[in-house]
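call fold target=2-(3-amino-3-carboxypropyl)histidine synthase
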Amino acid sequence: MIVIDERKVFEIIEERKPTSVALNGPDGILPKVQDLALKIGKKFGIPAYLLADTTWGSCDLNSIGGKILNAEIQFNIGHTNKLDVLEKNVIMIDAYDDVPFDKVVTKCIDLLKGKTVSLITDSQHLHQIESVKNMLEKNNVGVKIGKGKGQLNDGQVFGCEFYPASETMGDVDANVFLGQSNFHAAGVALATNKPTYILDPYFNEVR
């Protein structure tokens, strides 16, 4: 289940006291973003606009929509990166998926035992990368987590940026992507020319 950092949103509104705000995020979590907008309206008595236009990441914030509506703050939700603010009055808010990886990690052990892998993931699963690393290492799988660069955190990839995977590609046998995104994993495979496995916790599948 996706969990939005609502506490941070509320703290920022309490501190800055805007007269209106706007919110946007990836299409898949828009219902939760809409729920948060309703909570903001009820809690603070201000307009909280939902920008439903597709946003593809931190390079595509749809900040023009917030400006057209005269929103004093725009919260972009679900595109975690190193920077809290990318444009004036556009604040990045984390949204994490709490789906467990235990079962799918167990399924990949025989495939990866004795190898060294680069562990990477997207924004929603970044908080679980260390726990998966520990599980793999306990089962004789070597793990590297590449350093982030620019907006990227360690081990994090975007659809167009793969620095952590590129940094480790000379030291590993394969890449392991945590999540369900074939799009991100394909980019990693193309950027590194290494076998790339997806650990999909939703379908408990290694592919």
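return ok
The chain has seven helices and twelve strands. The longest helix spans residues 30-44.
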